[in-house]
Design goal:
The structure holds two protein chains of two kinds. By secondary structure, chain A is mainly β. Chain A has one helix and five strands, in the order ββββαβ. Chain B has one domain: Beta Barrel (OB fold (Dihydrolipoamide Acetyltransferase, E2P)), CATH 2.40.50.220. The chains are: A mainly beta, B mainly beta.
């Protein structure tokens, strides 16, 4: 899993039937100090995350398994909302 | 499997049910000398590892699911062992 920040929503009307009713979030990867890196990606939401939330997301086949109906073409899923990150020797950031 | 060092942990309340009851560790991949390489990742803990520990990390879905004992679990990265020492041949 990787950490990321939800920076937006994607609204799509014409989409694969297996994505019906699933929120699509724009996620910016961040590191353990909340610093952004790389390009944002779109992930399916399974934990009711919202704008500004720091989240854990998984890519690949595991993303599809995270959804209620596992037979879907998702390649990224938000799996948890981060309350806080403890980084190095218990130091909180 | 690769070597990694635990550099932190992540606390979550709202999460996928499969993550419930497992510690989520931030793992920094390291080389054989213990030097950091690449980006950190978040892995499920199965061996009661803690910050500062050098560990064995599996980053492959089927292995992760096998350790979890659930063939449909959406889990890829798991911490599968705490490393006591690494012996490297001098060559």
């Amino acid at each position: 899993m990787k950490m990321g920040k939800v920076i937006g929503n994607v609204v799509s009307s014409q989409k694969d039937a297996t994505f019906e009713g699933i929120k699509l979030l724009l996620v910016q990867p961040v590191d353990e100090t909340y610093k952004e890196y790389g390009d944002p990606l779109i992930a399916c939401d399974v934990v009711q995350a919202g704008m500004g939330d720091y989240v854990l997301f998984e890519g690949g086949r595991e993303a599809a398994l995270a959804m209620e109906d596992w037979y879907n073409p998702s390649d990224a899923a938000v799996m948890a909302i981060i309350d806080h990150i403890e980084y190095d020797a218990g130091e909180e950031k | 499997m690769t070597l990694g060092k635990i550099v932190g942990n992540v606390v979550t309340t709202m999460k996928h049910e499969v993550l419930t009851g497992h510690k989520l560790l931030i793992v920094q991949p390291v080389d054989k000398e213990g030097k950091a390489r690449g980006k950190t990742l978040v892995a499920l803990d199965f061996v009661q590892a803690g910050i500062g520990d050098t560990v064995l990390v599996i980053e492959e879905g089927n292995s992760g699911r096998m350790i979890l004992g659930d063939s449909m679990a959406p889990v890829r990265s798991v911490v599968a062992g705490v490393v006591d020492s690494v012996e490297v041949s001098g060559g």
